[in-house]
């Protein structure tokens, strides 16, 4: 029996005693398929062989059933819905109903259908519910019992790591529960596994130091037992077995005996494999006192990683653990003058993560680049996951998926898209080629072409291939979309979705958030409110701990700008920033990022005075700042300055979003300057970029009317046809260009405040009332307003009138803008 899907090269043994519990001793021996109870619950933590036992039970039931029975088996993965919005009962219906392709997603309707369908069954059906712990609630548990009671042809096989009430002794007459005590290896089964591993244990065998103790600690836990025996079997094959075997049991033995030095060495060599065991690893690490976490910071890192996904752990505890990790790693790097390579890289990684969590993006990025250099020097890992040494194969740092994931995320957060892309590509390539497997959904340009010869090296790092591949695909989708290639980002997301559906995988920890944030931005790009709501709803429970929170607020703000306009989006954005700033004691690495986004919004609204003040606080040589300076000039009516400013920013060294900004600003500014050919050329290039990268939402960041005018003229001249896409910009999202005022118009504007009445204004300006009225009407027309009060508000925004006395500060300004020059990852709208 294969004890766990997370155990590499596990040996198969048959355990008929468990089949006998399900079918009855006589029935199982005779090959019958009569179940001892209508509902069988396999209830145990990971590594107890539940899934493999379930597979054996399914096969036994199929093989034993008479052909006339027509046994149907339906498997529902509760951790991986067929459709992202499906609830539990909708998923069950989708697997029971062959005609449910167009079925709705109403849970109540689906539940009623399932009960009616099961009550009318005339042939046996085995319904297998995998990962049921994800959906277990008292109401759902009781509903399953009721379902079994009304369906005499239904058998339920529930696989879970924990349930609410289904294992309650009150229901023992209706539920056959097989838990840890029965799933644990007996002495005879442990002996059989040892024989298959080639290890002698038991009576008469020579005592093997450490193995007997570790097996005792394992207490029959199949995963730990197999791991200990495999580690012993491989000791003669490698010089350092700890560096390339999954030794959770050995790790646990060191923790139990407070041998933290040895425990940290095991963890550093197999960090991913150990944290992949989830709750089993966390229960061990939670035994470590805080002083030991500081002395052995890799243990602190494992606790932080595992508790990060536990919603019951408060942020204060996470911050405390991160401080122990960071300060402990800094101390170890200072005092350990000659550490082994795995520990050196592990402590550098912890220092990197600590700097990132503290908001010091430049320092975190420098460490990430240093780690990459060390990895290349030690293992020569290419962007496609290849290696010219045995470091990857033998489980060196190069084979640690969590290291590549953290490098990629750190680089993204710090604005180095190239490094983020390299790290996530290496991770995706390392995970993609498992034995006999092919890339899910086919390859993509720049994301394929790896030799399938890496199955063994992957299994030594972690056997959660699909989980970590999902992490890589989500990160790649985020970085490509953030850079401006929404088309490639969408294809990567689709590939991740197919992989999730086919494998039932889930990206480790909170790595899945990257993909959902990318999905949220694709939703506003395509004006898909439902998809945006779904993505934000999945992310929201983790808002108190995710680091990418500004991108979530931005996606919501962009959607609001689309449906209601920029004057709604700005207050929403500021309120979101203020809330997070109060909860997190500052905005951290995102200060400049948010400042520039607010500059763009304020410019398009006509808040020129605010935009000027914010731009003045940013480094003038930054390409993003230069784009916003040109945009401000464009909306202010200074086409010449806008065109000159954007022309100074060449196409080299800027990302696709910036290129699109550059082309659109140049189009409108050149048209305003009378440079028709340059306007047409810029528009044609912008059209090609939109079609190639799906960047149509960028059309919302320049004045609509002149852009539409250029497009109409370009179509008439046969230069390009961009009119339909421009016309598709929703009315509330269309930006307005406001013309410059003459000197007399400025004076007439000022009298709207000091002398509202026309007669008083005429005396003040020493002109006729009719002339005053004419100048005021010109002001209304140029400022795109309908009356005096609205003109005063808009003129104040534009800096044409002095602002009123400041009130209490509500929204944060660019508090971290001074470091924006170190980050080149700040997209426009």
Helix content: 55-70%
Structural class: mainly alpha
Write down the overall mean pLDDT: 81
Which strand order does the major sheet show? 2-3-4-1-5
Beta-strand content estimate: under 5%
Q: Counting H and I runs of at least 4 residues, what is the number of helices?
A: 40
End-to-end separation? 55 Å
Largest sheet descriptor: 5 strands, parallel
In one word, what is the shape?
A: elongated
Compute the gyration radius: what is it?
32 Å
The poorly predicted ranges are: 1-11, 236-246, 379-395, 434-463, 808-829
Number of β-strand runs: 5
Q: What does this molecule look like?
A:
The chain is mostly helical and 829 residues long. 58% of the residues lie in helices and 3% in strands. The protein is built from 40 helices and five strands. The chain has a five-stranded parallel sheet with strand order 2-3-4-1-5, with helices on both faces. β3, α6 and β4 form a beta-alpha-beta unit. The protein is elongated. The chain starts with 15 loop residues before the first helix and ends in a 32-residue tail after the last helix.
């Amino acid at each position: 029996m294969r004890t766990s899907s997370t155990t590499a090269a596990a040996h198969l043994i048959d355990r008929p005693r468990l089949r006998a519990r399900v079918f009855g001793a006589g029935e199982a021996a005779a090959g019958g398929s009569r179940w001892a109870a209508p509902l069988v619950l396999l209830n145990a933590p990971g590594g107890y062989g539940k899934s493999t036992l379930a597979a054996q039970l399914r096969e036994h039931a199929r093989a034993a059933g008479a052909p006339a029975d027509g046994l149907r088996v339906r498997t529902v993965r509760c951790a991986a819905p067929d459709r992202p919005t499906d609830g539990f009962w909708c998923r069950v219906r989708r697997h029971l109903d062959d005609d449910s392709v167009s079925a709705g997603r109403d849970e109540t309707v689906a539940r009623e259908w399932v009960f009616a369908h099961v009550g009318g069954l005339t042939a046996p059906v085995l319904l297998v519910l995998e990962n049921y712990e994800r959906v277990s609630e008292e109401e759902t548990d009781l509903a399953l019992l009721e379902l079994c009671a009304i369906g005499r042809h239904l058998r339920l096989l529930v696989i879970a790591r924990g349930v609410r009430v289904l294992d309650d002794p009150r229901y023992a007459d209706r539920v056959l529960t097989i838990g840890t005590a029965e799933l644990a290896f007996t002495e005879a089964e442990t002996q059989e596994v040892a024989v298959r591993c080639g290890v002698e244990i038991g009576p008469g065998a020579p005592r093997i130091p450490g193995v007997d103790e570790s097996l005792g600690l394992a207490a029959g836990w199949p995963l730990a037992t197999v791991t200990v025996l495999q580690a012993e079997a491989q000791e003669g094959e490698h010089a350092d077995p700890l560096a390339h075997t999954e030794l959770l049991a050995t790790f646990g033995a060191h923790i139990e005996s407070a041998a933290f030095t040895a425990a940290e060495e095991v963890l550093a060599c197999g960090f991913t494999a150990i944290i992949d065991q989830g709750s089993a690893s966390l229960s061990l690490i939670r035994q470590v006192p805080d002083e030991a976490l500081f002395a052995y910071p890799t243990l602190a890192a494992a606790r932080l990683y595992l508790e990060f996904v536990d919603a019951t752990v408060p942020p204060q505890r996470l911050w405390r653990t991160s401080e122990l990790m960071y300060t402990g790693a800094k101390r170890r790097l200072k005092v350990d003058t000659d550490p082994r390579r795995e520990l050196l890289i592990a402590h550098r990684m912890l220092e990197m993560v600590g700097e990132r969590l503290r908001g010091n993006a430049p320092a975190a990025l420098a460490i990430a680049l240093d780690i990459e250099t060390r990895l290349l020097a030690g293992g020569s890992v290419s962007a496609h996951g290849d290696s010219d040494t045995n470091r990857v194969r033998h489980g060196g740092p190069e084979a640690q998926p969590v290291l590549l994931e953290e490098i990629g995320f750190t680089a993204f957060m710090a604005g180095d898209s190239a490094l983020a892309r390299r790290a996530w590509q290496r991770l995706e390539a390392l995970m993609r080629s498992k034995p006999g497997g092919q890339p899910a959904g086919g390859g993509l340009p720049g994301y394929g072409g790896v030799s399938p010869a890496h199955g063994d090296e992957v299994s030594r790092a972690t056997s959660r291939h699909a989980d970590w591949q999902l992490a890589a695909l989500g990160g790649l989708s985020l970085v490509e979309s953030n850079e401006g290639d929404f088309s490639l980002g969408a294809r990567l997301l689709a590939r991740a979705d197919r992989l999730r559906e086919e494998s039932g995988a889930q990206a480790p920890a909170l790595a899945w958030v990257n993909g959902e944030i990318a999905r949220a931005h694709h939703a506003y790009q395509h004006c898909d409110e439902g998809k945006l709501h779904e993505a934000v709803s999945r992310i929201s429970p983790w808002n108190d701990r995710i680091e990418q929170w500004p991108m979530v607020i931005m996606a919501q703000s962009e959607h609001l700008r689309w449906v209601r306009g920029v004057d709604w989006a700005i207050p929403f954005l500021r309120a979101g920033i203020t809330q997070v700033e109060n909860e997190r004691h500052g905005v951290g690495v995102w200060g400049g990022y948010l400042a520039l986004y607010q500059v763009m919004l304020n410019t398009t609204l006509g808040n020129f005075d605010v935009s000027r003040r914010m731009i003045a606080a940013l480094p003038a040589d930054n390409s993003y700042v230069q784009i916003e300076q040109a945009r401000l000039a464009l909306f202010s009516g200074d086409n010449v300055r806008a065109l000159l400013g954007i022309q100074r920013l060449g196409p080299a060294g800027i990302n696709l979003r910036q290129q699109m900004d550059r082309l659109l600003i140049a189009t409108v500014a050149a048209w305003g300057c009378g440079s028709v050919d340059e306007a047409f050329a810029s528009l044609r290039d912008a059209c090609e970029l939109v079609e190639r990268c799906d960047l149509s939402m960028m059309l919302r960041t320049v004045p609509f009317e002149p852009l539409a005018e250029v497009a109409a003229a370009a179509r008439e001249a046969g230069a390009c046809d961009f009119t339909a896409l421009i016309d598709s910009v929703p009315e509330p999202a269309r930006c307005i260009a406001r013309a410059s005022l003459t000197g007399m118009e400025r004076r007439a504007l000022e009298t709207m405040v000091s002398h509202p009445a026309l007669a008083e204004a005429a005396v003040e300006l020493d002109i006729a009332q009719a002339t005053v009225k004419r100048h005021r009407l010109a002001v209304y027309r140029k400022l795109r307003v309908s009356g005096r009060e609205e003109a005063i508000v808009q003129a104040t925004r534009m800096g044409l009138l002095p602002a009123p006395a400041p009130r209490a500060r509500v929204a944060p300004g660019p508090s971290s803008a001074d470091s924006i020059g170190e980050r080149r990852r700040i997209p426009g709208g």
